[in-house]
Amino acid sequence: MANTASIQFDQFLEEATITTHDRSTLGRDCFYGLYTSWCLLNRSVPLPENVFWAAVRTKGIHPDGSGLAMTGPAAADYILASYPGMG
What we know:
mainly alpha
């Protein structure tokens, strides 16, 4: 049976990331930032960063070359929070 953290992480990956084949993939800071934005929008408590990275590894995702790009409302929230002058 999957634990709550695993279910939350799977939902995050499904709703906030897409696979990309170009070089503009999520870096380490952006990946966790996107996750915290997703949690904020979903009224979820973010996993501690060490637990998040452990979940990333269990999915076979390399944090520095994820092959993933951001998408959806969490992406917009993250971008606006990162660059407040854009909003």
